[in-house]
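Tutorial sheet, problem 5. The two components below are modelled jointly, 224 residues in total.
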Amino acid sequence: DAGVTQSPTHLIKTRGQHVTLRCSPISGHKSVSWYQQVLGQGPQFIFQYYEKEERGRGNFPDRFSARQFPNYSSELNVNALLLGDSALYLCASSLTSSGNTEAFFGQGTRLTVV
Amino acid sequence: RKEVEQDPGPFNVPEGATVAFNCTYSNSASQSFFWYRQDCRKEPKLLMSVYSSGNEDGRFTAQLNRASQYISLLIRDSKLSDSATYLCVAPAPSARQLTFGSGTQLTVLP
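Model answer (structure tokens):
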């Protein structure tokens, strides 16, 4: 079985641009969560989607948005990029919407904003 | 106080050594805990789940101390391949998200 897949793996964008990151969860998993990880820190929660509905949102500005599709894949969108948005963006897949369930991560998208 | 705190290290240990990391959490109601391993510039990978007093998997042992609100990870007979950052996770019971510590960096030296 395929694990969690994310695309693209690397991305370079200019300040003010928009970016879309994609994630496909493990087959059978209905929950997708997005995390941002900057160097030297643990991943920080951005969103959780379960059964195509937003179930949780972290402390990120409205420039960040996401959605989940009927096949449970997900997109994370970031508008008006800032230099500080440069980070590793991780997608996590899990069976349930609970944060107390084992979650499995994709390889991440490394975003650089210049 | 941060929800999950870890000693950032780095821990530099010789091959074969035993090393232990501690992680403290602030929510006394937390029930599930996880240790993830993250190699440089890679994604976190689930190492161990802890739902009761502890868990053991080969050279790795996780112990939970609810009274003092900490979880420890013990690695015996360290291998070079154990070099990584170890992330502790202690989600709140009703939380949707994993709450990560900042990670503890381990380097196993030949």
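Marking note: Residues 4 and 25 of chain A are 5 Å apart (CA to CA). Full credit if you identified this.
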